[in-house]
Amino acid sequence: MKKRILINDRLQKGSYFLTQPIGRNFDPQFRPELTPKEMLSLGVFDGNYFDGYIDEYPDSWFRKAKLSNKKDPLLNFFKIHASQPHSVWIQKGWINPSDLRGWFQWYCRYYYGRRIPTEDLRQIKRWNAMKRHISAIKKNCKKNDLTCRIKQRQALLHWAYDSRKI
Question: Where are the domains of the chain?
Answer without folding.
Answer: 3-131
